[in-house]
## 1
Amino acid sequence: MAGILRRRRAAVLLALSLATASNAAEPPLRAMRWLPANSDRVALLTRAPAECLTPAATPAQALAIEIGRAAFRTPLLLGGQAARAGLSCDSCHQSGRGNPAFAFPGISGAPGTADVTAALFSRRRGDGIANPRPIPDLTVDARRIAPAALPAFVTGQIVEEFDGAAPPPAVLAGLVAYLNALDARACPDGPAATTPITAAATLADAGRAITAARAALAAGDAATAALMVLAARAQLGRLDERFPAAQQRPIRAADSALAATLPAIRARDARAATRLAAGQAAIPALARKLAAARRRSLYDPARLAAVIAGPPPAASAVTTARQPK
């Protein structure tokens, strides 16, 4: 009974937090829920910290890093209330860095902080005390954890801090490999550099996740392959919420095609590999369609600024991204 009451309380807190974050109205982009209203939201939603990755030494290490990188970017890794809110590891640690603008009601104090012992996201670590701490830059702080302790640390973050399910072994190994590859010294243009957030980059992340899914499937690891497909679908969801209806149709078609691979993957059906290959082959055509509509999307800073300033015209309204089930 106590567990049921804790879950209900967490659900109520989440609903209240999301209502507060969106000022009783759905924001045009989900990530706006955890940005301060007085921040430069256009800049924060169109540029991200540069990703600082050391090169992989072997093909096996490269695949592990790709698996970890994709998992790091999907809310479904964390599960529970965090997944429902749309939060991933990358929400707090953009590109594996920090996020000085993160301000989630009920979790943050000052921008750039989070309470990792809040009952909102965790039944296990919730202590009833508001004690937000600065969000660390993983290119620096992850390297302070002893390599042997890193798998247990990552599992604890997912299972205890966010009530998620323990990740498949290859996903856990991938997350550890990704964290080990993050290094501020590997920033190509210095630790303060940023890169534009674009449809092309988002779609490339989806393609990288599909590549990882195909490799996992070829290795007979259906659980990892399925999570990689969900990671690719999460990226398509981010595309969906930034484009008007005409471009949402092909994005959703691509998402539906990926969704159709999941039963085959979980059943270890030989057709899963063919379907994944077809899904990946469709990406270049989708990229061309989206590139032609870039200025009508919320990847365009001017368009995004106009939408944030006031309701967009009905003819060009965008909808909230669908999250994969």
## 2
Amino acid sequence: MKFVAKTLYGLEKVLAEELISLGASEVQAVNRAVLFNGDKELLYRVNYCARTALSVLMPVADFRIRSKDDLYNGGAKVEWERFMDADNTFSIVPVINSPHFVHTGYAGLILKDAIADYFRKRTGRRPSVDTSDPGILINLHISNDLVTISIDSSVVPLFKRGYRQVQTAAPLNEVLAAGILLLSGWKASATLTDPMCGSGTIPIEAGLMACKIPPGKFRQFFGFQRWKDFDKELFENIKRESDSQIVSSPVKIFGSDISDQAIKQTEANVSRSGLSDVVSLEVSDFKNFNTVDKQGFVFLNPPYGQRLQPDEIDGLYGMIGTTLKHNFPGTTAWLITSNKESLKNVGLKPKEKHILFNGALECILLKYEMYQGTKKPEKD
């Protein structure tokens, strides 16, 4: 079977590597997604184990259209009884960029009618639409005249791991945090410090990786569990096999924040994820923080400036550069922000740059190598 794993911009290659490690074949990275082949077992495994996938779609039809009637006819040709029956509820998510449809919702209504009529003709009954809690979630993608109809095997986006009890005002997306860690090359053999941890997304995702805890372990639901052909025994076997790989972390992970409330929230999330022995937390101002490991990794997701005055945010970024230089010699530091202007105040030359998105915000992820002493060669 062919599948599409959606991800965030900039993480396509990272996800492709994950999928290959999970057993996928014919892997192809495209914009914000990765195409791959596999079977039902792999579909379940990717949902449960992939750290950088947002959702996994299973295409059920591809065809071209010249009118709205072509969309109806193409949708009515899908063998919908393979996936659902007239007692199921369903919902359609349309993503449309086509001259044939001025209104996105109209294309969704046409496909809805095609599915409802499909069952009415065969059973005399029509499945109902439920947009709040659908039994089957259908993705309708139209680009110019090319239509792709897929079923969403995740439904609840995979970044919603299930461990987050409480969160700060602007938490980092879990998939983005995992992607940053994988892009950085961090391994569980190196100490990790997040001195502006907010509600703890980076330390927790690092802890899950270090302990080999599947990111789906805390979720209560995946969309494929409502599919007509759901194999409960197969899924339980995958969960048991994956969970049997869990180990104790060989390294400590540190998180701190200037906000006492943020640390309390992080403590709740760390406890929920079973990482209280792995992640150490404290209330601390970054400028007073010193690294515990001169060879470790530092990850920073500072405020982007939406809630601060320009002089405040510039001063903050200047402090970040000074503190990294004086308090974190020998470390590898990674910083993500959407504030490219204030970034100039860091005053350090990045070794790498990556463009990523945090929600709708285009961000830049930078790598700084904090050399001890000077890089300049000694004079004879």
